[in-house]
Amino acid sequence: MQSLDAQVVAQALEWARGGDTVWYCTVLSTFGSSPREPGSIMVANASGDHVGSLSGGCVEEDFLARVMAGEYTMPAVIVRYGAPGSGDGHLQVRLPCGGILDVLVERREATSANVQHFEQLSAALAGEQELLRRVSLADGAASLAPASAGGPRVCYEAHGESVLLRVGPVAKLILAGYSSVADACAHFALRLGYQVVLCDPREEVTASVEWPEGMTFVPQLPSQYIALPGMCTSSTAVVAVTHDPRIDDLAMMEAVKTPASYIGVMGSRQTSRARAARLRRTGGLSEAEIERIHMPIGLDLGSKTPAEIALAIMADVLRVRRGRVSVGSQGYEEGADDDAIRAGPSR
């Protein structure tokens, strides 16, 4: 399964290679509530065909009508949607949530330079390194350069000369070993647009499992897969929820050596303290490496069922990906060891 961003770029590239002019749109900023976040993208052609979205319906309908009517002839322009009408037609399109959003609209003809640029964008989404995409508002010229670790998806100032857009690998979830919680995590992650890989060498555990469509199963020890070059990027989350130290501990030992943005393992506070001691003693992990591991994993939602635990885990993965600080939960009472049915809070 491709992420929505990858699908948008792939369609833009296909149209450009076929000789079609495309309109490549990016949400730059939002005010109040809005259905899509900054950095969300959509592409359309002159016939009104499109992939991706900007708002969930109302903005797209207006935008496509304008494209087919021959508007948006400039190489790059910023338009605003959602505010009360004040003479500008775009401002008369009201979002159901009452929000306002600014959209960068790029008109890109089917030139060799634009085809090459879309190829580079596609490679960036499938690669290992985040890039910064700079788009000139004067002539639409676009370039890519290496990005520093972390940062907002969009850097945009009103009346500025250019826009900076962060482009990076598709979000990936590596599930270290199979369990009912891992199965539920896979389903949630796929719906969130993650590339999902589950690794487990235990044929007696996985032989009869029906894998969700879009997930990749690797019959290999998770630690071996994680250690392979390029398997973990800054857009990768590694989650271990088997309760088997032979799988979970080894996965953690390898994961902390990678740039993965989220590393977590399931267990109560008591179990997590014991695991941390093992990782220091037998794994040789430093305190800094142990601090990278979310254990207990997940937000403290009072989860009990596998689906509820998976929800807590994926909510925490998403929290970290969006750069949100810890929710400050207090966790469970000292000595609780019900990790067979619960996921504890993240640190």
From TrEMBL:
The organism sits in which domain of life?
A: Bacteria
Among Gene3D superfamilies, the record links this protein to: NAD(P)-binding Rossmann-like Domain (3.40.50.720)
Q: Which residues form the XdhC Rossmann domain?
A: 173-317
Domain XdhC- CoxI, which positions?
Answer: 15-69
Under InterPro entries, the record lists: MoCofactor_Util/Proc (IPR052698), XdhC_CoxI (IPR003777), XdhC_Rossmann_dom (IPR027051)
Q: Return the protein name.
A: XdhC family protein
According to its UniProt entry, this protein's organism is Vreelandella piezotolerans
